[in-house]
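Mods, move this if it's the wrong board.
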Amino acid sequence: MIEALTLFAILGIFAGLVAGLFGVGGGIITVPFFVAFFIQFGFEEEIIIHMAVGTSLGCIVFTGISSAHAHSKKNAISYNFLKPLASGIVIGAFLGALFAVQLNGNLLKTIIGIFALLIAILMSVSRDIKLKPRNQTSKEPYFVGSGIGFFSSILGIGGGIFSVPYLKASGLPMTSSVGTSAACGIPIAVFGALGYLISGVDNILLPPFALGYIYLPAVIGISLTSILAAKYGANIAHHVSEKILKRMMACMMFLISIYMVFS
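Not the wrong board. Structure tokens:
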């Protein structure tokens, strides 16, 4: 158990830096590693990917709070965008978790890999998209938030892959887009993790120390270090150019896609 906690604590450093740097919650890093770790731990194959995604969301609760707090101190969170997005996210994230546990584990793993590859390509070649300014009564952010929450919960991520481009296209600068996205990751993680907890609580294949599809030692180990690391990641994000941030994220997505599809 001590070795496992140490392993997860080291992973938490990388997850926290990624969360703060890109506003993505760190799940895009932790899910592939959880898959590898859980295979080595001898977990039942049928539940490994669902455990990886559910545990990732459980970790993002704490990482997201730390990252959002760091961005908030730099006034990099737009609450005008956050409030309607979060309202939609709450419903979408919970429903996404309930849907994901119905999918075959290998199919879900492949979906995550293909998704990461698409994001890598888009971030490498796409030009910035501009959306029309929205008025205060627009319902668009509520529907967008529901979609972000739904797909993020399926993928076990904090939603930054979706929310950062949307916020950027809506007119926010990159730093505010990342900061607001980090705050959006909190309701995604809370309600997504709740869905995986409820869905898996009666599964007889669960290993010891699991609460539903959430592996508690991983949540504890990663949270111990990711909370601190996320603050440093957020600080770095405010000193790195937008072009470099996009290239870094594209490279990371490409490597993750290779592992998830071909492992």
